[in-house]
Amino acid sequence: MEIQFTAELLPQALGVMVKGMGGIFAVLFTIYLASVLLQKLFPEMK
Amino acid sequence: MEILLEGIKSITLGQIIMICIGALLMYLGIKKEYEPTLLVPMGLGAILVNFPGSAMVTQVVGGEKGVLNILFDAGISTELFPLLIFIGIGAMIDFGPLLQNPFMLLFGAAAQFGIFFTLAVATLFGFNMQEAASIGIIGAADGPTAIFVANELASNLLGPITVAAYSYMALVPIIQPLAIKAVTTKKERAIRMTYKASGVSKTTKLLFPVVICIIAGLIAPASLPLVGFLMFGNILRECGVLDRLSKTAQNELVNLVSILLGFTISVKMTADQFLNIQTVIIIAFGLLAFIMDSIGGVLFAKFINLFRKEKINPMIGAAGISAFPMSARVIQKLATEADKQNFVLNYAVGANVAGQIASVIAGGLILAMFK
């Protein structure tokens, strides 16, 4: 393969980066909310 | 006599270099103890596949199918080996420290930044999206996920990606302090965090992996093989009635599959596949991914601190990578270096466990985006 820097691909590359990070934050934030809910519903009995 | 000398006469410079690389991997595994479970079998495999006419691999000219190719088709092409390892990893993980501080999940997300940053950079350097994504996934700091994703998207790059992923995981104690110190001050590294000892009920621990499976299934179904096997292992651990299976998953299963995994991957380490400029670039990009993971995590923690009264030690963000428990230990060591009385291990472990979940979710998202 030929290795060359193509600046024209920058918007596309940034788009993928934003979409990927957005996706991962969305899933992890949902898991966060679910774990807070689990903690509230099933607190540790002392 | 001629037959006996045939191998010596036909060996190429590339094959000699690969045999030396194999020996180096074995040296690093045995002498330096860098991920020996993978690097030792992989190093020996790299030596064995690079002899001219080696029956370990299928030869182009009229050879029978090599034994490593048979193992590769059975265990890697089918994704079986990395997934079986996930059962063992799941059985080893205690989600307790994470459930004590569920907020740490967000640091797990932030520390996957290196994956997507490197993906973007690799795209700019002319790799197609599938190849760029496979290179980026080195930043998951999670060997089985890297193998799983790379095999699906760019199987031709599997050799260098696996070498990079496992080598950098072994080098976390060197890479992370450099990256963290570049973006934090000593004062920031010395920030103390109050330890709030809250317990987690058994029911919560048992339901947590089930809930993660449901969320992943609904939001990111492509991640289900990775998430499902990981959480299956965790349920074996937490259900309380399958201790025997849990111990088997943690020990015998992981050990058996690890033996085969490293050895099998070496099928991709023949000189003609490995020795090229792409390999050098992939290994460089892998380092970039690890550095940007740590920086992404730290910068996210700093951003969160802008809105918090009780500050978070920004290094906790860097613990959100999947290299467990090494990363958490590195963070604690750096915290102690900055302030001898600083104890952040509990938070770091929580973020580190979050990184394990985040890395498999990231793998699934990448497959959903580019497969």
Automatic annotation (TrEMBL), chain A:
This is Oxaloacetate decarboxylase, gamma chain. The chain crosses the membrane at residues 20-38. Keywords: Membrane, Transmembrane, Transmembrane helix.
TrEMBL record, chain B:
The chain crosses the membrane at residues 12-30, 37-58, 70-93, 105-126, 132-150, 157-179, 206-232, 277-300, 344-370. Its main location: membrane. One of its GO terms (molecular function) is lyase activity. It is a multi-pass membrane protein. Keywords: Cell membrane, Ion transport, Membrane, Sodium, Sodium transport, Translocase, Transmembrane, Transmembrane helix, Transport. InterPro entries: OadB_MmdB. It holds the Pfam family OAD_beta. It is found in: Cell membrane. It comes from the Bacteria. Signal peptide: none annotated. GO terms for biological process: sodium ion transport. The keyword Disulfide bond does not apply. The keyword Transmembrane applies. GO terms for cellular component: plasma membrane. NCBIfam families: Na_pump_decarbB. This is Oxaloacetate decarboxylase, beta subunit. It comes from Lutispora thermophila DSM 19022.
